[in-house]
Amino acid sequence: MNETEILFSNALERLESAKILFNNGQYADSVGRAYYAMFFAARAILFQKNIHPRTHRGLISQFSFEIVKKGNFPRELFDLLTRAQEDREQADYGFKIDIDSIEAELIIEGAKKFLEECQKFVL
């Protein structure tokens, strides 16, 4: 397996974890795993372009600039990545966590679509 395949495999694994956590009622943690699914998928695409951001915000910025703004990726799926990142930060660092099943399901379903779109680039 090459590096891109490993990163994408990590993405698929995180998405499965998100689904398990969601089914156990752990909505905040499920959103975190869904975010990381999208993070690893985006990282795989950027890796193929020899772009290696060092931060989460850097990855989002580079993905937007290199992939989304060039018309190669649906804007609404990219917007779910940024939303999931905000939700993950709230879940991991926030005092009061307001992530319910509706938000978690939206993010997980969005992550699934995000990975499907990313798969066109990496496989």
Query: What is Rg?
Result: 14 Å
CATH arch. level architecture: Up-down Bundle
Number of helices: 5
Q: Which consecutive residue ranges, at least 5 long each, have pLDDT under 50?
A: none
Total DSSP E strands:
0
Shape: globular
CATH superfamily: Nucleotidyltransferases  domain 2
Count of distinct structural domains: 1
Keywords:
Four Helix Bundle (Hemerythrin (Met), subunit A), globular, 5 helices, 123 residues, mainly alpha
Give the topology, please.
Elements: H1 3-23, H2 27-48, H3 56-68, H4 75-93, H5 101-122
What does this structure look like?
This protein is mainly alpha-helical and 123 residues long. It has five helices and no strands. The longest helix has 22 residues. The termini are close together.
Describe this structure in a few short sentences.
By secondary structure, the chain is mainly alpha-helical. The protein contains five helices and no strands.
